[in-house]
Amino acid sequence: MNAAAATLQIALVGNPNCGKTxxxxxxxxxxxxxxxxxxxxxxxxxxxxxxxxxRSVRVLDLPGAYSLAATSPDEAITRDVVMGRHAQExxxxxxxCVVDATNLRLHLRFVLEIARLGxxxxxxxxxxxxxxxxGIRIDTAQLSQRLGMPVVETIAVKHGGAKQLIEQIDAxxxxxxPQPSTLASHSFDLHADVRALLAATVSVPRRxxxxxxxxxxxxxxxVLGLAILAVVMFLIFQAVFSWATPLHDGIANxxxxxxxxLGDTLPDGxxxxxxxxxVFAGLGTVLAFLPQILILFLFILxxxxxxxxxxxxxxxxxxxxxxxxxxxxxxxxxxxFACAIPGIMxxxxxxDPRDRLTTILIAPLMTCSARLPVYALLIAAFIPQRTVAGxxxxxxxxxxxxxxxGIVSALLVAWVIKRLRRDxxxxxxxxxxxxxxxxxxxxxxxxxYERGMIFVKRVGGIxxxxxxxxxxxxxxxxxxAGASEPAIHYSAxxxxxxxxxxxxxxxxxxxxxxxxxxxxxxxREVAVSSLAxxxxxxxxxxxxxxxxxxxxxxxxALALLAWYVFAPMxxxxxxxxxxxxxxxxxxxxxxxxxxxxxxLASFATYQIASAFGA
Amino acid sequence: MGxxxxxxxxxxxxxxxxIAQRLRDLGFVAGEPVRLVARGPxxxxxxxxxIGYTRFALRxxxxxxxxxxADAAP
Lengths: 614, 74
Ligand SMILES: Nc1nc2c(ncn2[C@@H]2O[C@H](COP(=O)(O)OP(=O)(O)OP(=O)(O)O)[C@@H](O)[C@H]2O)c(=O)[nH]1
Ligand SMILES: [Mg+2]
What we know:
The complex is a heterodimer. By secondary structure, chain A is of the alpha/beta class.
């Protein structure tokens, strides 16, 4: 400790969803993920700030825990850090216990459990805004005296809402901070202590927020609730298509115009081809899907902050249990619609290891946003823009169907895994439903901006690199003199494509698609930019969508859609599964079953569609 | 729905029952008032139970560990 004596080490500890990460962000000026359900933070995260006195403070944000008797991997991290048993983390100089002031009956018990450890600590009563709105009155002076530790009020979602906390932390001297005086009773029964504390220091007019009860009566209604859930999910897919189309077309046309202008200005040659056929045709096609991705995230962010997600998990738990899952799988699986990687990591909040593994294995079947460009391209090219049954956009309906196909296969796979498993003992749910909260437009806007930047950086990074690489492979070696086919036919990529074609011909894939599948391993969106590059190099000037609509059969398009429902390979997903489960066997099982399903589904789709003359 | 009761006890299912232990940590202890808030749409499972100021979704098998005495109908 000598070297680091100048730096104060503090850790934020508390029940799930009490606002630890919101406080962490407020203290350190970072933007870790905050959302309205238990189990958002699943790893320890460190940050720094300088206290008013000039002292530097290192803050540790920890996963929420209900008790030191941990039941899930994320709770175990918190237990180990708090008890000073963590392999890489020394015990903090000061434990900042965070509680939700509207949920003290539950949260104070954990505070008392930690207080028993006898380490220096202070209590932050967070969500004081919500508590005041509900008329909850807390005698902080009295509470502080009874607990034998400083108590401060905070509002983690308000600018300056941690002022008292910052001052109180600054007043702490690592060496001198007193051991919290043992509680008056220090009894065996923490619950009795909490009741006594509450009776003496807190007045609560009503146990729950009236709004929560009113909303829950509708949203959790057995019939109405399921109907609302279905409508919400369906609306998202409609919106992704109908709202985004004008923006998407605008970007696509703009990029194409820019590419054409550049093509006219530059002299003919390799550089011109690289820029026009590679960068503009390839990247432009992917970039145009930014609006779709932002709209998808707009909905996900609003749902996450509202508190609705655990309700959806409640409604679906029984169905998911039948399929071999748990309602708790719902949130990781929903995150997987954005990307399977955070989804797979979010499974750490699932206490049962069997449920967790099943969820990890099926997460890649949820259609991630990287697949959206592929779906959107093919749908726009082959499915007419038409209204069905008066209100539905046909393209939106097809998109919804593809997502549903992924979900249904996931449930089937989970069911098979459940059947194959020997250990059939009980699985637990025990899930907290939080208070509803209105999302802050500012937070949503920042979240969207961050998401948008991640996508744009991906386009400018890995997708650009792969597109350029593909352009090289598709342009060299140059065709022999007097060649009759387009140049790409003789290139390295052409050869690879034709070799793969033998495996994929029964699925109706042409060699251009086969080429595009390869870089799609590293980033799925690249399948689209690769197709754009391949076709542009083959001399098609009209933009990918028009080319595909003119040159592919409907059966081929449908087969490729079916392929992407399973889209077996994404290297980063496989690496995440390896890291999270520590088992190569799981990775092989995952890649193997996905590839098998993808091949079979595409094969069946192509053969059936061809038989119908599509 | 909305039925109120008071917890009598949480019974372990076998030795070292982590589910029962967790239920106690969450506040299911003797004398604590509980209220049934909602039931799941399929087979009335899971149950949404209010304990203290918190709502927990419990599967029937979990909730079965908690014995309660029904309060007089509100
Ligand atoms: N009204 C209000 N909402 C808050 C406050 N602090 C946090 N929230 C909200 O509470 C929810 C949970 O916040 P988080 O910071 O993610 O909670 P956490 O304790 O880190 O949760 P886990 O990581 O799951 O343990 C989010 O919806 C926040 O917007 C507050 O002071 N007032
Ligand atoms: Mg957190």
